[in-house]
């Protein structure tokens, strides 16, 4: 749906913000702060399941000349976030497809457990909760964090501790042995802030698990070649990472990358385990 087809609001209601007001523009690279950024391409997000007419139907992707990072031209205002968060993908509800997701999560937990054997596991943006359910089977103490209140309530109803809060506001230094950021960093306006928080919240030998699309691989280029790459229109993403750029960011914020894997969670994604220095 294009913005021009939206029914005008009734005169008694305040006017809906223009689509271009739904994003706060980046004036510099959100990773390295270099001011030299240029438009890379656009993408159509109007057919995304969570699309709302308040959001511009075209996403503009930028590239930083200094560090090559790829990101959207802006991130959502609080009002736009509230609109998007008013609905949830069915596969992100706690307990969704729990048996199938258990197999996928088990392969993640097994790899993480090679580096940290026990302790509290914080999953940020836990969605269907599968990673926490499975981490508990390995003996970890699961705790979830999600920005959608209904999702947090849904996990608590299934017996797992969960809060509706932003990672950067948690005040529990050194509390966790594992923090998973599974498809989280690309949703944050400034991913470095998430890594600062993770570093503070992890115990000394704790590890972070991060997954996200990898835009610098053959599979991504093949999706592009077939004009079938969903990520240029992925409404909730502000960033496309390459493996080298992710590794450099982890190093910058005090993490040592230990392990790389291809993700089974979503298409063309990578998974990295990194230890807090
Ligand atoms: Zn940059």
Q: Pick out the low-confidence regions.
A: 1-11
- Which class of the largest domain in CATH terms? Alpha Beta
CATH topology of the largest domain: Rossmann fold
Mean model confidence by pLDDT? 92
What is the overall shape? globular
Instruction: Determine the number of helices (DSSP H or I, runs of at least 4 residues).
Output: 7
What order do the helices and strands follow?
EEEEEHHEHEHEEHEHEHEE
The end-to-end span amounts to: 48 Å
- Give every kind of bound small molecule, once each: zinc ion
Tell me the CATH superfamily of the largest domain. Vaccinia Virus protein VP39
Please report which band the strand proportion falls in: under 5%, 5-15%, 15-25%, 25-35%, 35-45% or over 45%: 25-35%
- The strand count comes to 13
Strand order of the largest sheet: 8-7-6-9-10-13-12
Return the CATH architecture of the largest domain: 3-Layer(aba) Sandwich
- Number of domains as seen in the coordinates: 2
Q: What structural class do helix, strand and pairing data support?
A: alpha/beta
Portion in helices: 10-25%
- Which value, in Å, is the CA radius of gyration? 19 Å
Biggest sheet features: 7 strands, mixed
Q: Can you walk me through this structure?
A:
With 277 residues, this protein is an alpha/beta fold. It folds into two domains: 3-85, no CATH class; 90-213 and 239-276, Rossmann fold (3-Layer(aba) Sandwich), CATH 3.40.50.150. It contains seven helices and 13 strands. The longest helix has 15 residues, at 98-112. The radius of gyration is 19 Å and the shape is globular. It starts with 22 loop residues before the first strand and ends with a strand. Residues 29, 31-32, 34, 64, 66-67, 69 line the site of zinc ion.
């Amino acid at each position: 749906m294009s913005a021009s087809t939206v029914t005008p609001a009734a005169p008694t209601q305040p006017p809906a913000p223009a689509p271009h007001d739904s994003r706060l523009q980046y004036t510099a690279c959100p990773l390295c702060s270099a001011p030299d950024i240029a438009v890379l391409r656009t993408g159509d997000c109007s057919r995304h399941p969570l699309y709302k007419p308040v959001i511009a139907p075209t996403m503009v992707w930028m590239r930083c000349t200094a560090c090559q990072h790829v990101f959207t031209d802006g991130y959502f205002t609080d009002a736009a976030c509230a609109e998007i968060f008013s609905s949830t993908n069915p596969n992100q509800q706690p307990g969704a497809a729990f048996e199938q997701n258990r197999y996928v999560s088990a392969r993640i937990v097994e790899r993480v457990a090679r580096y940290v054997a026990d302790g509290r596991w914080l999953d940020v943006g836990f969605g269907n909760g599968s990673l926490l359910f499975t981490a508990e089977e390995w003996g970890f103490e699961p705790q979830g964090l999600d920005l959608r209140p209904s999702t947090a309530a849904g996990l608590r109803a299934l017996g797992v501790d969960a809060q509706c809060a932003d990672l950067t506001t948690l005040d529990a230094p050194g509390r966790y042995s594992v923090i998973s950021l599974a498809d989280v960093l690309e949703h944050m306006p400034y991913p470095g802030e998430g890594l600062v928080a993770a570093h503070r919240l992890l115990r000394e030998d704790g590890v972070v698990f991060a997954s996200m699309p990898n835009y610098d691989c053959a599979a991504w280029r093949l999706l592009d070649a077939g004009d079938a790459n969903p990520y240029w229109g992925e409404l909730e993403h502000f960033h496309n990472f390459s493996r080298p750029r992710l590794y450099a960011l982890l190093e910058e914020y005090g993490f040592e990358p230990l392990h790389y894997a291809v993700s089974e969670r979503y298409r063309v994604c990578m998974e990295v385990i990194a230890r807090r220095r």
